[in-house]
Amino acid sequence: MRDALGVVLTPAGERYFELVQRLLRELACGTAELTRRQSSLQLTLASSPTVASMWLTRWLPELKQVYPQLDIRILTAEDPRRLDPSEFDLALYYLLPGEREPEGVHIRPVFGPEPVIALCSASYLQQQGPITGPASILEQHTLLELEDHYHDWLTWRDWFAGIEQPWHTPAHTLKANSYLLLMQAALAGQGITLGWERLLQPYLQEGALVQALPQSMLSQGFLCLLEPSHRHASVAARQFMQWLLKE
Q1: C-alpha–C-alpha distance, residues 152 and 147, integer Å
Q2: Which of 72, 159, 160, 203 could make a disulfide contact with 209, Cβ separation 3.0–4.6 Å?
Q3: DSSP H helical segments within the chain, as ranges?
Q4: How far apart are CA 5 and CA 30, in angstroms?
Q5: HSE of 140, CA atoms in CB hemisphere, 13 A
């Protein structure tokens, strides 16, 4: 309608104008969000809790520096055979030759066999004193032992056999059915555990863990990359594989 100052909106027109303005703002926000999502790359990585927490998350900041557009989701499960390949883009697991392999995936080794070493924290050595040899850890120290049928191949008995040293029941043990819990116990100075040298290299370099004995045995299993075979790798998956194999 018109008045002395010119054309002005009626009350109904003002309400309509406010509605249009609100819808335009929502449309602009929605467009920006859609653009942001399309410019990012979604990647779901599956792994065991130990590999995810002790290795993968330590390297993710470096990955994000190389590929900042990656949006990463981590899915953890102890046994890769219980995962549906449709649930993840790529997976990282230690696999043991001769075991039944996960179905529906292509398997590519990332590491070859690597040294399995005895590890503890520096604080543990300060509290308990020096370790003089394999026999002394059985008699005078606390061994962190895994109670898990899926990981039977990584046992202290096997390790002693691998370094050709006599074995007997240790005097002190701390047992758990989770290897991740044992690693946390080792970091907290609760005893001596076994670990893959390359997997735990950041902790050794930082001094959070130290090698308790000079002896080592080669792992029977090795870290592998699992890629679903029923679909082509996404751009995000290809970028991750390129970074991983380069590193």
Answers
A1: 8
A2: 203
A3: 11-39, 49-51, 57-66, 122-128, 134-140, 156-162, 179-187, 201-206, 235-246
A4: 37
A5: 12
